[in-house]
C-alpha cells in the first residue's frame, strides 16, 4: 500500500510491534506497510514498555517518541468512564503527532507519549456491544479520542472507519470523537447513519501559534468540518483550552466569525451543531512535565493567578478564578448563540 504524502499525513520514523499483534490482520497490514515504506521495525515484549528511544533530554525524548509508532494488543477491555463528554472511553489508540504544550496527555500518558495503535479492534467492538446491550434502550455514548487523536493515524489503520460503521449499525450506541487533524476523506463514505458526532478542536490564532505545534491551521480544520457536515455527520466543536491574555476576547470572537462565515452555506445543521467550552487548567504535575519538555514555554501557569480546585484522591488543578471563568462563559456562550442560534452549547468547564 502506498501512502499519499500530505503536510499532516503522519509517517513514523520507526515502528515497534508486540509479537502478539502480528497474529491480527491489522498487525500484518502494518508490517506490510512498513516494508513498503522502508520503515525500520522491531519486536518488543509489551506496548507499555518501550525503551531505547533516542534523545538525551526530556524534550529530545518527547520529539523522538512522537516519531515512534507502537503496534499492540489492548488486553484490558474495561472501558473507563468519560464524563462530561460521553459514557465511556473507547481507546483505539493513544497520543498523536501533535506537540501541543498544554495537552493533558502530557501527564496522563506520562512516559509513554509515543503513538500506539491497537490491532484487536473487533474484540473492542464486541465489548462495546455488551456495554450497549446492558443499557439499552437508553443510548450509550463512547468517546474515541480520550487518549489520543484517532484521525491522525486513520490513513495507517482504517480503524476509525470500521468503528464508525459498527456504530452505524448500533441502534442504541453512539460514537463521538474530537480531532485537530484534517484527513477526513476516507471517512466521508462510511455508513455512519448519523450515529457518530465529529467534533473539531478550535482555538484562537494566538493559542494555535504559540502552543499547538505541528497541528493543522484553523482554516484547514474548519474546511474539514464543512466536508464532514456535507457527508451528513452530526458536527460539533470543542473550543479548548480557552486562555486569557491581552486581547483574548477579540481573538475568540474573530474565530467565531470565521466559523460562521465558513459554515454559512450549511446552516442550519441537523442535528444542530454542538459546542463544548473548556477553560485552560493545569496540575502541578503537568506544569513540571510541560516545562521539562518545553523549557521555553510561554504557557501561563502562574498558580498565584489561578484558583485551586480540589479533585479526586486529593489531586487538584488550577483553573481561572470564578469571576474570570464566569465572564469567559458568558461572553463566549452569548457570542456563539448569536452566530449559531440553533446550536447547543453542551457545557463550559
Ligand atoms: Fe494533545 Fe490533541 Fe494536541 Fe495531540 S492534537 S498533542 S492529542 S491536544
From TrEMBL:
PROSITE patterns: RADICAL_SAM (PS51918). The keyword Lyase applies. Pfam families: SPL. Residues 80-312 form the Radical SAM core domain. One of its GO terms (cellular component) is endospore-forming forespore. Keywords: Lyase. It comes from the Bacteria. GO terms for molecular function: 4 iron, 4 sulfur cluster binding; DNA photolyase activity; S-adenosyl-L-methionine binding. Its EC number is 4.1.99.14. PANTHER family: SPORE PHOTOPRODUCT LYASE (PTHR37822:SF2), SPORE PHOTOPRODUCT LYASE-RELATED (PTHR37822). This is Spore photoproduct lyase.
